[in-house]
Amino acid sequence: MQTILVPIDFSAASETALVYANKLALHLPAEIVLVHSHVGATLTPERRVALLSRLEALAERLRYQHLTRQSGRRIHYHYHMAAASLTDSLEVLVSGYRATLVVTGLALVDCATATAAGNPVMLLPEHVSCPVLIVPPGRHELASEVVVSGDFSRLDAHQLAPLTSLARTAEAHFDLVQFHPPTSTGLVPLKKALMAARAAIPNATVHLLPEEDALEDISELCAQLSAQLLVLATMDGCLVRRFFNPHYTQTNAYHLRIPVLLLPTSTVPTKACCNQCGLRQAAESRLMARITNVTF
């Protein structure tokens, strides 16, 4: 049986994550570990008991949300109190519980200003050894239409095959998307990598597309395909961080409305990348400000 870790801070976002994790737990199947991080004042035995009781009450309240009573009873929960921030303890917990997945609620963060310990931006794939599933607000069913975007020349069947278990049924459709620079001429290796990836995932359609803006291109393609789950497998840690910038709420970007699975393939952005990204975000903010100020 697999294990899913769900960080819980008792916010609406963490409740949404737990509701989705419940559905996955029945489908995989998997057991769920609810993790609460207590940082600051000393955790007294009385306070620890109270927080564990609160975690258990939350799990029991959400156990039957969108599930039948008979199905809900099949979910097994464990509860863990972390004395350190999730930034410091999450990978230890993933290893200790042998977790195959972390499910967390969507928290929009401008990485240029994210400095506080435990910030959600730190729960990204370069910090944990298993995939991280980020669930936005709203009700979400398990996906029957899945988009997988990444560098397939760096992905193998061992990383791709488990993705089929996250879909609603074995007949779920997958779109495998490889973007390339518009001026690129050496596309044969990319085509071969896509075809090899399709061999690992049944019911898959492959797409080899020129890239203008990676984030915009992925989001627009997901909207065109009515994707219910986006799997992002990129080495570009800067791109991953851009995905969850509050800026994209202004355009109601599609990728903020569906669950996004981040495979542990990205690397921490370099200073040069962060500087370039900052310039891009500043330009986008100025553009949005001009659009907002236009009167009709």
Automatic annotation (TrEMBL):
Residues 1-136 form the UspA domain. It comes from the Bacteria. InterPro entries: UspA (IPR006016). It holds the Pfam family Usp. This is Universal stress protein.
